[in-house]
Structures are given as C-alpha cells and as structure tokens.
Amino acid sequence: MSTPFPWQEPPADCELPIWRYTRNPIINRNPFPGVAKIYNSAVTPFDGAYAGVFRAEYRTGMSHLHVGRSADGIHWDFAPAPIPVTAGADEPAFDYGYDPRLCRVGEEYFITWCNGYHGPTIGLASTRDFKNFTQLENAFLPCNRNGVLFPRKINGHYAILSRPSDQGHTPFGDIFYSVSPDLTHWGQHRFVMGAGPEWWQAKKIGAGPNPIETPAGWLLIYHGVCGTCNGFIYSAGLALLDLERPWHVIKRCPGYIMAPEEPYEVTGSVPNVAFPSSALVDAATGRVAFYYGAADTVTGLAFSTVDRLLDYVNTHGK
Amino acid sequence: MSTPFPWQEPPADCELPIWRYTRNPIINRNPFPGVAKIYNSAVTPFDGAYAGVFRAEYRTGMSHLHVGRSADGIHWDFAPAPIPVTAGADEPAFDYGYDPRLCRVGEEYFITWCNGYHGPTIGLASTRDFKNFTQLENAFLPCNRNGVLFPRKINGHYAILSRPSDQGHTPFGDIFYSVSPDLTHWGQHRFVMGAGPEWWQAKKIGAGPNPIETPAGWLLIYHGVCGTCNGFIYSAGLALLDLERPWHVIKRCPGYIMAPEEPYEVTGSVPNVAFPSSALVDAATGRVAFYYGAADTVTGLAFSTVDRLLDYVNTHGK
Amino acid sequence: MSTPFPWQEPPADCELPIWRYTRNPIINRNPFPGVAKIYNSAVTPFDGAYAGVFRAEYRTGMSHLHVGRSADGIHWDFAPAPIPVTAGADEPAFDYGYDPRLCRVGEEYFITWCNGYHGPTIGLASTRDFKNFTQLENAFLPCNRNGVLFPRKINGHYAILSRPSDQGHTPFGDIFYSVSPDLTHWGQHRFVMGAGPEWWQAKKIGAGPNPIETPAGWLLIYHGVCGTCNGFIYSAGLALLDLERPWHVIKRCPGYIMAPEEPYEVTGSVPNVAFPSSALVDAATGRVAFYYGAADTVTGLAFSTVDRLLDYVNTHGK
Amino acid sequence: MSTPFPWQEPPADCELPIWRYTRNPIINRNPFPGVAKIYNSAVTPFDGAYAGVFRAEYRTGMSHLHVGRSADGIHWDFAPAPIPVTAGADEPAFDYGYDPRLCRVGEEYFITWCNGYHGPTIGLASTRDFKNFTQLENAFLPCNRNGVLFPRKINGHYAILSRPSDQGHTPFGDIFYSVSPDLTHWGQHRFVMGAGPEWWQAKKIGAGPNPIETPAGWLLIYHGVCGTCNGFIYSAGLALLDLERPWHVIKRCPGYIMAPEEPYEVTGSVPNVAFPSSALVDAATGRVAFYYGAADTVTGLAFSTVDRLLDYVNTHGK
Amino acid sequence: MSTPFPWQEPPADCELPIWRYTRNPIINRNPFPGVAKIYNSAVTPFDGAYAGVFRAEYRTGMSHLHVGRSADGIHWDFAPAPIPVTAGADEPAFDYGYDPRLCRVGEEYFITWCNGYHGPTIGLASTRDFKNFTQLENAFLPCNRNGVLFPRKINGHYAILSRPSDQGHTPFGDIFYSVSPDLTHWGQHRFVMGAGPEWWQAKKIGAGPNPIETPAGWLLIYHGVCGTCNGFIYSAGLALLDLERPWHVIKRCPGYIMAPEEPYEVTGSVPNVAFPSSALVDAATGRVAFYYGAADTVTGLAFSTVDRLLDYVNTHGK
Amino acid sequence: MSTPFPWQEPPADCELPIWRYTRNPIINRNPFPGVAKIYNSAVTPFDGAYAGVFRAEYRTGMSHLHVGRSADGIHWDFAPAPIPVTAGADEPAFDYGYDPRLCRVGEEYFITWCNGYHGPTIGLASTRDFKNFTQLENAFLPCNRNGVLFPRKINGHYAILSRPSDQGHTPFGDIFYSVSPDLTHWGQHRFVMGAGPEWWQAKKIGAGPNPIETPAGWLLIYHGVCGTCNGFIYSAGLALLDLERPWHVIKRCPGYIMAPEEPYEVTGSVPNVAFPSSALVDAATGRVAFYYGAADTVTGLAFSTVDRLLDYVNTHGK
C-alpha cells in the first residue's frame, strides 16, 4: 500500500495556482513541551512515510532543528531533542539553526540550514536514516541565508542556491547559484535573480523549497519581501529556471502566487509572513504539497500540481 | 426616484461623531481577477448613481486606478482595466497611481492621486463621463502626497491641500494650501496645520476627503499618524477651516474621531490603518458617508451627519 | 468577611507557571468616555477592597493616570479625572504620565510612573487615601522608565529598580538598582541584569510588578523585548533576586513565562505586547494575580502562586 | 573706463576647463564683526561695479543674506545688516536664508535662496538698486533647495531650476525645471537630470550659478555629491541644456570639472566642499569668473571661458 | 615667590572675549611612550604649582586618567601609570575613564569623569595629594557624560552639572543640575538649559570647566554641538547662572565664543572639535586660562579675564 | 647589479616598529591625465625592477586597475589604460575594481581585488608578464572585500584571507580564512580574528599586504577601523598567524602600529585613513617596505624589518 499523499482538491474558484489546506495550520503554537513554535521547516518522503527537519523555536527564542515523523504528512511527531550535528576537531562549532531545507541527492538526505558561525551562514549535514547525521563544512562565508540544494548534480557538480545577507533583518537580498565538486569547496558563483522590480518582492528574495525538476526547467518557489511602514510582508513567488544552467531564468511571474491573508498568517510573532520552505511531489499524479511557515509562528500546508505551476508560470511569467 | 444614499443610523451609545457600517468591509480582498486589494479610494454621485476611482493593488504590489460604478454606494462593479491617463507629448510619463481623491468642480470631475514622476507627486486629471480622462500637469514637484482639491474655486482660484513628503514612508508631514489660476501653475503656498502635538497625530497628517463646505467653514477630515515600536497607526481627525482663507484653522479636535479598532483595521497588510479618503454628502438630510481604507487591505464605510461633525468640532475643537 | 481575591485555577495542562484569566481582557477598549484604552496599570489591596492607578490613554494619544476602585479586582470603576499630582514651587512641572506602578511601603502607597520632564523619567508620588496625592522629586535624571519600588526598606533605605532609556522606543535597556535615605536623593547604583542573551529578551528588559518577597529571595517578573523585522515583542520573564542585596541575581529563567499569544495580545495598537505591571499576592494562600497590558490596548489578568513561581525559577533558572 | 573683470590666465598644464584663483580664498573666516563665515554666495555686475548677495553665517550658526559691493569682484565690502526681506500681511514669515543665487531678468535683479518656511524652500525677492527689496511668494512647497533662475524668460515664462529635498542633510536630489507666468504660480514641472551614475555625483546634484546662455545651449555648472564613510564630497560638474526646452540635456560630462583639493577646500566646518554658486561672464572676451563656497567656511574664485566650457562639454560630455 | 600663571595678552583686534595661546597646542601627539594623544583634560593649582588629571588615549584607543604636574601650567610631566582608582568590595568595577574634570571643594580635590559601568556614567573620586585617590560611588545611572562639580556647596549640598546621554555618539544633550547631601545619593534634578535654538548648539550641549563664581553669578563655559553632513562641530559657549539657584539661567550668549578654526582644531582624529574642559582663575588679576581639547588629538590653551567674560555675557547674552 | 630596494633608516627615537618615508606621499593627486588619485595599491618585484597594480580613481569617481612600473619602487610610470580583465563566455561581467592586492604563488602573479558583481566581491586574475591577464572565477559570493592570498600553498591548497562585508560602508568586518584546490571552488572557511576589543579596531578589520612568512609564523599587517562622531579612522595593526593553520592567531598586538597623523593622512577625500595594502621584503637584509593608501587620496611608503616586526609582536602581542 502506498504512502498517503497530503492532498485536497482546489476550491472551485481558485484563481491562483496554489491553494491552502482548509485545516491549517497543521502545526500550532506550543507543539510540544518547551517549544513555542514550529515553522519554516522541511520534509521528505522516507521509508514509506515522511520525515522532516523542523525549526523549533524554544521559549528562549532560540531555534533548534528537530526531527519529525509522520505517516500522512499532516500529523507529526517530534523528537524531543535537537538533531545532534557536531563539528569535527578543528572545525567550526555552531550554536543555533533555523530555516532548514531538506534535499535527497542520490541515496543521501542533505540538510541545509541557517547556521551560526560568526554570523548566519549555510550549514550542511547529511543523513541516511534521520538518526545519525554527519555535519559537513559550511558552504559559504557568513553572512548567508536560505541555502537550497538542487535534488541532483548538475554538470557533475552539486548545486545550491543561496542569498547573501547581513547580520540583521537584511533589507536586501538576491538569489545566487554556486556549485561544488565535493560538497566542501564552492565556486562559479552566478547571479540568478534579484529583488524587484515589483513591489511585493522589492526588498529581498530567497529560494524556498528545493527546485522541482520538470522537462521545461526547474520550478522555483521563492519568497519575496516588501517593506511597509509597519514591517515586512513575505509572499511566495514562482519562477522557471533553465535545467542545465539554472542561473538562466526562463520565466518569472510578476505577481505573487500566495500572500499572507489568513488569520494565522497576518497575525503572530511576525505578522504577514508566508514562507514556503519545502515541497512534496507525487510523481504519479503531479500533485505538490507545500509546507510554509506562517507569521514565524505556525506551519501551514498548501497544494498545487506540477502542471498548474508550469501552466501558470508560462502564462503569467515574463 | 432619487438615488439611494448609503446609510445606517448610529448605534445607541455612539460617543464619537462617526460610526462604522455594520457590514464592513464593503470591498474585501481579491475583489476581482488579478487584483489583491482595493482601499484608499474615492467616490462621487454621478448620473443618478455613483462612480468612483479606486486604488487597485495588483498581485505585483503595484497600484493602479480603476473606475467603479455602483447603484447604492455599497456594492461596486469595477472596470477590469485601469484608467487610461496618458501624458501628452513632451510631458511627464507616469508609471503608477495610488490614494486617489475625486472632486467635482463645476461640471468637471477631477482626480488627484499620488503619481510617480521621479518620486511621488500629485497627479491631476479630469473627466466628465468617467470614460474619457484628460491628464493635466502634475501640480507639484516631487515628493508630495495626499493632494485634495476643494469643490469650488476660492477667491477665483482653484485650491488644493497637499502634504510634502519624501520618497519613503515619510516620518513627517504637514498640510499646506496652494492655489492656481489655471490648474497648471500653482503658488501662494500656505501652511495650514502640522503634525502633533497630540500623540495620535504626532508623526504626520494628511488631508482625507475633499473638504465639506458648511456655513461655518470647511469641515476637514484628515488622517493623523503616530509611530509605535511596531509601526505607524493611522487614525482620522477633524478640523474646521475658514471658508475664504482655508489656511486659517478655526477649530481642530485634539482627539481622533476614528482609530483602527475593528479586526479588518488592526490586521492586514499594514496593520492599524484607518484612512478616510472620500465622503458623500446628502444635501437634503446632511447625512455623510465616508469611505476609508482599512489596513491597506480593504475598504470600509462609516457615517455621520454634517450637524454632528460641526457640533463635535465646535464642542471638542481648540 | 474577607476581600475576594481574583482567582482561577490553572488549566489541567498548564506547563508554564502562569495562566491567563479565561474572560480576558478585563478592561476593554473605550472603558469610559474620552478614554481609548487602559493598559500597563497597577493595583493594590486598599480599605477592604482594591484601588489602582491606571494608564488611561485618551483619544489624543496622551496618557494620564486615573484612580480606579474595585470590589473584586476584576471589575473596575474609574475616576473621570486624572490624579492631581502637582509639583511644588520651583519644582519640575510635568505634562503626562504612563506605565504606573503602585507600592505600599509602611503606611503609605507610592506611585512611580514614567513622567515627562525634558524626557521620560521616574515620577514619584505618595497617598494614603487615593484621594490626596503628594508629589515628590523625580527619582532620576532623564531618560528613565519602569521605576519599580521594593515594598519595604532594604538596609534602612528605600530601594528602586529602574531602566535607563532614551527619548524614543529605546532599542536597549538593562535593570539597575538604586537606594535613597529620603526618597529625594538616590545613589549606590548597581547593575542588576541586562538584556539577552536569549533572543526573546535580547533588545531590552524592564521590571514589571513590585518584587514579591519570599524567604528565598525577591521574585521579579519583568518584561523582555526582542525585535523582529515587524517590530518588538514584549514577553514576561522571571528571576529571583537576593533579599538584602537585590542586585545579586540568584536565578533567572532563560525562557519567558508568558508571551503574547491571545488575539487581544497579538493584535492591537502595538501588536505582540504582554506587559506585566502589577501583582496582588494573597498571603494566606500564596495565590498571585498579575495585571498586564496587552498590545498597548487592553488589560489582562493572569494567575500563579508563589510556590509555583519559586519552584519554576528554581527548576528552570540559571 | 570699463569695470575690471576678475581674471587670471590658466596655468600652463591645465587639463580641466576651470582653474583656481591663486590668491584664494578671497573671503576668509571672520570677515566682519559678528560674522563667522561667508560662503555659497552670488554676485552680479551692477552700476559700473559689482554687487552681491552673500550667505553670512553668524556666530549663532544662523545664516542671513547681506549685500556686498566690490569694485573689482575680488575685494568686497559688506552691509552690516541683513537684507530687509519682509513678508506681506497674511504671507509667510521667514527666519533665515542661505545659499542665495542672483539673477538679472530684464531690468530687475532676483534673489532666490533657501528660505525657512516649515522646512527649507525657495525664497524669491527682487530689487533694482540693492537697497530696496520686494519679497515675492515662495516658489515651491517645502522642502526644496538650490533654486536657480534662468536669466531670461523662456517661451514667455519665467524659468527656474530647483532640487526637491528633505528637512535634513538630504541623501538624494535631482534637478527639476519649472515655469511661471507671473513669478507667483509655478508649474509644468520637468525632470532635467538626476544623481549618478558616476560615483562623484551619485548621492545628489543641484544647480550652481545661473545657466550661461550660448548659441549651443545653456551651460550649467552644478554640484554633484557623493557619500564616503567620512561624509559627503561636493564637486562641480558641467552640462549643456537645450535653449528652449532646458529639461533636455544635450551633453553632460561624466567626470567632475573641479573637486575639493586645496587646503581651504578639504578642511573647514564641512570638509571637502567646492560649491559653485555664481558666475560672471564678460561678454566681450567670453571670460567667466566663478564664485564658490569652500568647506562651508570661505569663498573662492575660479576661472574659465565660454569657449573652453563649450569645447569641454562637447568633447567629454555624453 | 608666587606661582607663574599661564598668560598672554589679547591680540589688538580681539572681538571675542577669549583668545588662543599663540604656541598651541601645548600637548602634542605621542606625548609619552605608549600614549597616542592627550586632550579633554583638567588642571588645578596645587602645592605652589599645578596638578592635573589627563585623558591619555593609549594606542589601543582606550583612554585612561593620568596625573600630570607642571610648574608653569604649560609644560607638563605625566605619570607613566594611570590613577589607581579602585572600587570597594561589592561596588562597581570600572574599565576606562575619559573627559575628566577636577574641582577643589574645601580641602579636597574631586575628579569627575566619564566612567564605564554598563554604559558611560559619572565617576567620582577624591584626593588631597594627587597620589592617593579614594573612589566614591558613581553619581548617576548610565548613560551620562560631562559631570562638572561646583567649587563649593550650595544651600548645604554638593552640586553638579551633568548631561544625560546614550551609549553612542549621542545626537541630543541638555544640561541638568543635581545635588547631594553626602556625595553618594543625588536628587532634586533640575533642567538648566538645553540644546539650541541657535544652530551651533542645536544638537547638544555640555558643561565645560567648573563654573567660575562671581558676584553676578556663576560663569559657565560649555560646549555646544551642531551636526553637519560631514560630522559634528564642537564650539564653546558662555552663560551666567544664578548663584544660589544655578538652574536659573540669568544670561546666555546666542553666539559661540570660540569655534574650531586653527589647523590643530579642524584636523585630527575628530575634526572640528574645540572642547573646553578646565579653567584656572588668578584671583588677584582676574585672569583666566582655559584648557581645551582640540580635534580629540591635542591640548590647547586660551585666555580671558573674569571681567571680559562678565561684560560679554551681560552685553551679548539673552 | 641588484634591484635597489626602497629604504630609509628609522629615526632615532622610533618607538613603533614602522616608520614613514620622509618624502611621502610618493604618488600625489592627479598623477596622470584623466586620473584624480592613486591609493590602496599593490606592488611586487618583477623582472629586475618593480611592477604594480594600482587603484586609479578617475574623475568620474569610478576606480579601475592600472599597471605601473618602477625601477626603484618609489617613482612609478603608469599604463594609460586599465588592465584588460575580461570574463569568459557565460561568466560574470565586471564593471569596476578597487583595492587590489598582488601575490606571487609559484611562477604566477595573482591579483585579487574588490570586484563589482551584484555587490563587491573578490575578483581574481593571474599574469606572468603584467601584459596578459587571465581572469578567474570570483572567489566568493558578494559581499566581500579585502581578499588577500598567501604566497604559497598551505597543505596543498591555495589559501586566502577575506572580509565578508555589505554593499555600503560596512560597519562590521572580521577576517576569515578559506582554501581552494583549484582557485575556482573555495571552502573550509575558518574565522581568524574579529574586530575589537580595542577601540582603534572596534568597528572592523581587514587584511593588508600578503602575509609575510617567517619561521615563527605569518606576519599579518592589517587595517583596523573605529567610528567617531565624525567618521571612521583606519589604522594599521600587527598579528602573527600559525604557519600551517593560519586561522590560529599566535599573537596580536592590542595597540596599532601606525595611525593617521600626517597632513596627507588626516585630510583628503576620506580623512584619517592609513591603509596598508602591499609589502616588499628584501630577503637578504630583512628590510620591509610597506605601501599604503592615505586618506583615499595619495600613496605613501613606510618601512620596517622582519626582525623588528617579529620582536614587536612577540613583545607586545597577546
């Protein structure tokens, strides 16, 4: 019997290519003892069910990465202790982790996350069983955030998107592409796309879930951020990248495909945040389930299909 | 049969001179395809019904001006394309429009709005049928916002209120009065009133609906803005200006007459915004219907009467 | 017959040592004519019932201090006029007051509040009947906020906590301890504890209710503030101070004990504020009732017991 | 006998089209009792000699406009009292003046300056004898600086360049063109040119002396400003504007034509400022004498010829 | 034989009441091994010669207080080690000191300085021999700078001027007056005078040398600071305070009496600083010698007489 | 005959381990046509003389890299056109270059510089003849500055120091170490040392000349920056790094070894900058000649010896 895929059909009047799960949020405040919130997290099919790496924000306000397991992708059980990622001798030691992404490349699952090393940078670790984790070298110098791997090697190299940033709330941010022969040394940095010109993404942008491979290119869901006088608004955008030269943007939608509108998105610790960070794709049906952090407070689920996304980016993208 | 005037009687315990429509907001998110929000807009009686010019914020985050029509002032139909305002040869070209005001002077209807020309400034256009629009010269150098015409000439000149500003969120702002013999050249600039001293309007102020003429003076509803550590709060204030020398403030209420309190005002893209931008006045009854943007997200309706406003400003104003 | 103490038993699954009153907020918006909000206020048992000093924010946005009376600590009647605190000849004159604290020392009740004198500083006044108030010298030079007295002399001196600040929203703030032989001259300033290192209190901290004396030390509830890209979040923390040398921190909890979560805390004029400012302690039972401002908009009530607080700070504190 | 024109031949190796007077500064610190500095001022031929309007900075730091007279354009006598510009009844009253320009149009001499009226704006006054001055309406709403008239009407209208700004040090600034039929009402605002793209003028630009008419167009000397980690640098640039449509830029030099290099330019109250504000042109020889403020402290003189300037802007401009 | 008093007669054309020593600076860069600069320091007659406490900035950039001795007030020998001020048990420990003042009250000499204790505050120490120093409690909570004692008790209390500030470069600052019965507890805080309205002192002001007692009142030399686009300018101002109620300002000069003009004042580590910090008064002749820091780099000397200062403040003050 | 090495003996009283060339600056303003300034540049012995890569700031304010040649290391001839570094097909294109370093590794000379690619980053190019240059991939993602190579491989990898920064004036900055097997992919990022704690280097630090190898470790001259109210001060510091693990700091001097003091260092376009960027070492004598930019305006020369530097860092370092 196959693993159940989280899914709801779109509402009848669904104008945008993405629709929310009607029972959102799927992970509420205070999900387990000591933890205030889980959001901006990442999941993957694993061993006939689902596994995930979650940004668990403790009551101290610090975030740590916890493993979660789920049979249906909706109801999750969390490990009470954070993932034991430990630097080797003479390697950087780390003190926090947030906004993880999760990517299977070959037989291994790689976690990338925002890692503290004299500023935020891209941490990297691998696992095969979600019990034992091997930490690799940080991919970049600080400051960097939103490091997102591609799910296969491209031209023989591992490939990653990232967003150079600063120590703070970072009022700027563009997406770059870099590659590595060995997951330790990175180079051939290419600019992919930048903030703006549209207002909803005028402040900064950053990659969301791992790019979804299609014959037409990599589907990239990303967050775009604008600044109002009462703070930032994080929405989700859609672009299509060239398969072999992903820094070539084939299409990019000028409008967002999801903006914070629901009560659990417009209120919370950081009002007006919808932050997509992971996607499941059902190869047989083309169904896609997105996981996104809402208001830096809870976790929501939204749906689409590969065809709808492709159709939308082709129709609306420039 | 006369045009129905949007109206509700005040609640029994109505302490302030303005009360909200109980079925607010009248224009919700996603009002028509491609448009995310309509707010900060302006209406007028027209041809036995109502016409309006609406700030329609697209999913790109850019705002454009759309015409709307309504039989009752509450339910609106919107034109799917923006108003075709086009600069003449060798005149400034524009790229966006927001926060429109609408003012009948004589037989013509004038739209003023925040127009993009090397910074925000006051755009000006006229129409007689809400189908054909003639764009005039911008009234001022950038940066300026909240240009609001008076509904008749004063001392033989067109008259306007405006608020010089900056390129950004503008942490300052006073109201000035200027006149023009020809709607092209403007001068005789006079300071009307400034931000503060009360805290709710300590950051900046700007004119709201077109001033309402009464024998006692011009009733001016305006927005006052204060800054908290989590952003600005936009409330509505009330003042009475001299009829022939409107830069003379006869009375000004130290307290606001409406502040964001309802769920649709305190949450949204810009929480805590109640932005009055238009008023209908029923000459026979003295009833007033205010249109206001809420949280830069939706449009609300509120009511008062000329007598209540005059009585309030006389009683509470200084 | 004894005075009823405001109280609710904790919910069954209460993980934190503090729980909210289920009928919060106890003081809603527009509590009495002319006043928009009451929050960040202070109460005390008095004359077989309860008296309080309340931050009443007028529609002008200015705050003034009003006396309130209550038979049950939950339902309050407010004086329509502010407390008549008047400076003596050749003494500083004041123009506003906010965030009052209330402390009985001996037979007198002392109000401390944020007082305007060339910047915010700590105002001080005494009363025995909540009708006649004697204003004393300001305790400190500007700028200072959150002055909180101890309920008895320590080593023969009056003792106070305060938080030096700046003229604005103050992106920093530590708690200091000072003493006075005469309530006029203050000195022997000692650093008690500072902002951070945990994120929820990384921006600034300030004392909340008057410290609660226990054999193990003074229980201090305080507010901790962090800054997100959409503004500050005010939460409540817990520490235990040495009885005779209160600038020695015995224990301090790394996690908050209450953070803004309820609708009336996460939305309002300043979203995401839970600001504890007063506590009643029932000596017989050890029950504690906390009053806190929510979102700078309404007043809430929360409960605990001395034993639970002590146990929590001993278990979780460092 | 003709009026002597201030002049020195260029040094032999003069690469740039402008060269300094070797006995600069011509007006030093403390030029007459009570006045600390004279800089950023303007002169004109008048009555067989020279007259000027000077920014005199008092020891209070406030600047006022004083008339000066000179037989040779180099040695100046200053009126001990400021120019008596007085607003009419019900007109704006002013409290300071700085950075004056001086322009003869027809038989009248017009002063434009930075005038205080709820922010800096463009003051305007006329004189025929440098004794009696008639103040006109301010040309624009605040905030605006560097208002510079053209020396003749263009298309039947008075014409002015100005630079909208803010209340403070203004980190932006472009040059606009506006016209007036009556010196009271202004309109038909046109963007002329903006800051950048070259680094020396990347922060802001503003018109300097009145444009110099040539058959090929208006020669415009302007200041360009860049921002270093240690403050702004003000240099001088050169452009050529269309004669009848001066908002059309025919040529603009990518490099500056004078940058602060001399000790009296790189040190002073505002280091690194060379601010050209006036020019004399000798019609017979084409000689040009520029007056410029140096370091907001002293006044310098520099020379060129119309032919050299035209040749340079044609050769180097884009 | 009497101690020589440092002195030069004024230049013939001396318009202002203060004139510089012609051989300034008296203490140059690199004054003794390990020390980069000495500036902003204080001196006093002592034991038939002069003693002083100097801000010595080490090559680390940290400042420490060193004793200096001089026979003529011009040539100084410095102790190689800093003053051993040591906090008592359970008292604040300090880590740096700058901008000292020195004041004899009765038989004791008191040093006040900017002391590091969780932010800058006013350190206080006493000595009778300039060898043994007793450190007292800090006078105020942080942040505070420029604490300047009066040279006698007033109304039976020690009296001090100070300027509440912030942790950084402090863009604000007014002078306050406080008193103490015991040099430990301070209170009765009174506002003396604030920044502005004149531009040269529009940003902040702070007391300079100890006030000089005259029958007409206390002569106060203070620094006033304005902000240009290229940084702050520190000049010196003059005021006359009431003898017994020094927070009453009798006269205050609208213009500065000394501004940075000399090369050693307009260049250095902090260009454009003239910072008076100490004064010697010759009782027999009324001569006054001022010591001032120049450009945070060197130490200068300037002269006046009590009569000239009194005459100037009476003539020019308001 | 050997190449003359630029050299002067130290002055008699030289307390610090570095002393200036008495005929500084060696490259003045306006060094050749079209170029305003040369500073922050790098040199190397080459072909029996000296070659260098120079930051030439044009009159546009843009900086480009020019080759220079010199027989004595003091008098330089510059190529009139910038170095032709050209990106390959599908590689980043660049538009400016500044602050070059120059490092021989094996038979090749490598230039690293601040390269414009969506923000400043580390450009890399190689040459063998100073005529033909091969541009390599940028070493890092933007934003980064002050990339400085080691003059030999370490543990088989190329090694570089760099300082992650931001788009602007960057108020922070630490030195990191990274390695590469192929000069294209970089990783194993290690923190070397950070800004502070001493004030002169409290804001940011960055590597200067290429590290100088000695048996005791790598001698690293670097710049340290502090922030005053009037801008940044750039001084030079000294540290000793472990030979094989250069991110291990053996010793670091708490005080600077050179700070801006000379007129050509404290005035200029960016006052108070002494920026060491290159060093020549005479193997036979141990003499060292440093090249440094002064005030972002001119180029100076300073001297030391390897023994003096080692002795100083061993004696004064921590």
CATH fold name of chain A, please?
Tachylectin-2, Chain A
Q: Name the average pLDDT of chain A.
A: 92
Reported for the largest beta sheet of chain A, the result is: 5 strands, antiparallel
SS element count, helices of chain A: 2
Overall spatial form of chain A: globular
* Fourth CATH level, the homologous superfamily of chain A: Glycosyl hydrolase domain, family 43
Q: What structural class should be given to the helix and strand makeup of chain A?
A: mainly beta
Oligomer type: homohexamer
Q: Which CATH first-tier class of chain A would you pick?
A: Mainly Beta
What Rg of chain A is obtained from the alpha carbons, in whole angstroms?
18 Å
Number of strands of chain A: 21
Taken as a percent bin, the fraction of beta residues of chain A is over 45%
**Separation, N- and C-terminal Cα atoms of chain A:** 42 Å
The residue ranges of chain A in which pLDDT falls below 50 over 5 or more consecutive positions are: none
Number of domains of chain A: 1
Please name the two chains that share the biggest interface, counting residues whose Cβ lies under 8 Å from a Cβ on the partner chain: A-F, 36 and 36 residues
**Percent range for helical residues of chain A?**
under 10%
